[in-house]
Design goal:
Elements lengths: L14 H25 L5 H22 L7 H25 L5 H8 L2 H13 L6 H18 L11 H22 L7 H23 L1 H4 L7 H28 L2 H4 L2 H17 L5 H21 L18
Helix pairs in contact: 1-4, 1-10, 1-12, 2-3, 2-8, 2-10, 3-7, 3-8, 4-12, 5-7, 6-13, 12-13
Length: 322
């Protein structure tokens, strides 16, 4: 499906609203990678992420219930807790851990290959539409871009931490599995309700992991800096509540192919902000890898935009953005 069927007489939103909405998911979601990097400067990664999603999930769920949203069914609680654990514990949690050693811009570029895993796992899971030659070419191109970015042959100064790189790739795998699981769940809850429950489930899983990881034993509230608190608040309000609400609105009023252009704009924004605000280095190899990865994601995303099926709007769109 390439568009949305509107009810007779339904007024189309003003162009300015579309501009503001796309600017929000481009800039706000692109900035969440840097916000995570700043937050974990003095906050433990799993504890920060878990607390963020529990607060955002509770706030969104309470607001929806006050507006009359139905209480989720038992199977909807179960399915969204499973999906939330894959999306947020495996996806966002591993990414937060990796950003302790990997620059935020590099993380965003690696996360950009997420659609490659999603296409592959969707085919393996549902056994519906085999990836086309163009899609396979895009997947291979994206993987080449990641290898060129990681440069495993490089050692010493300028080399990237291999553990962090592997963690981000595993985060992409977990995120894709969570997205596919949520998409194929039966009797799905309403999109925003599903997202709030996923944030609650994933947040609780992250807090349990934080306890096992020793985050709380090492936590000193007095040592948390003001900039980390500011970044933490930004992630809750702008990254989770404002950003995702905007995404859902766009999915209702625009086409999936246009909305999912965020996938190749966010990494560029993240790299620029990491350089401008955090002083992260931008090398020629990083720029060339970014071009390759963005081109691969464009091939995958635009190709998927022509299919009849489309991503569920109940699934957060990116590991850093939920």
């Amino acid at each position: 499906m390439t568009g949305r069927v509107k009810a007779p007489g339904a007024a189309r939103p003003a162009a300015a609203m579309f501009v503001a909405a796309f600017a929000t998911i481009y800039v706000v979601w692109g900035s969440t990678y840097l916000a995570i990097r700043i937050a974990i400067e003095s906050m433990p990664p799993f504890g920060m992420a878990g607390t963020r999603f529990v607060i955002a999930g509770l706030a969104l769920f309470a607001a929806l219930r006050l507006r009359g949203a139905p209480w989720p069914l038992p199977n909807q609680w179960r399915d969204n807790f499973v999906a939330g654990s894959l999306l947020l514990l495996g996806g966002n949690g591993l990414m937060c851990w990796a950003e302790q050693t990997i620059p935020s811009g590099v993380t965003a570029l690696i996360v950009g290959v997420g659609p490659l895993f999603t296409v592959l796992f969707d085919w393996l899971w549902a056994r519906t539409q085999r990836p086309t030659l163009m899609t396979v070419a895009g997947m291979l191109l994206g993987l080449c871009g990641v290898v060129w970015l990681a440069a495993p042959w490089q050692h010493g100064r300028g080399a990237l931490d291999p553990r962090g790189m592997i963690a981000v790739l595993l985060a992409c795998v977990s995120w894709s599995l969570g997205a596919i699981y949520s998409r194929h769940a039966r009797r799905q809850a309403e999109p925003l309700v599903a997202s709030s429950v996923q944030m609650l489930g994933g947040g609780l899983a992250l807090l349990i992991t934080a306890w096992i990881h020793g985050d709380f034993a090492r936590l000193e509230l007095s040592a948390i800096t003001g900039r980390s608190w500011a970044a933490f608040a930004y992630l809750i309000v702008m990254g989770s509540l404002v950003g995702f609400s905007t995404f859902v609105w766009l999915m209702k009023h625009s086409t999936p192919a246009r909305v999912f252009t965020y996938a190749y704009v966010n990494p560029v924004v993240a790299v620029f902000l990491g350089w401008l605000v955090a002083g992260e280095a931008v090398s020629a190899r990083m720029v060339s890898a970014a071009v390759v990865i963005v081109a691969a994601v464009m091939i995958i995303t635009l190709k998927a935009g022509g299919r009849k099926s489309e991503p569920s709007v109940g699934v957060p769109a990116d590991p850093a953005d939920a």
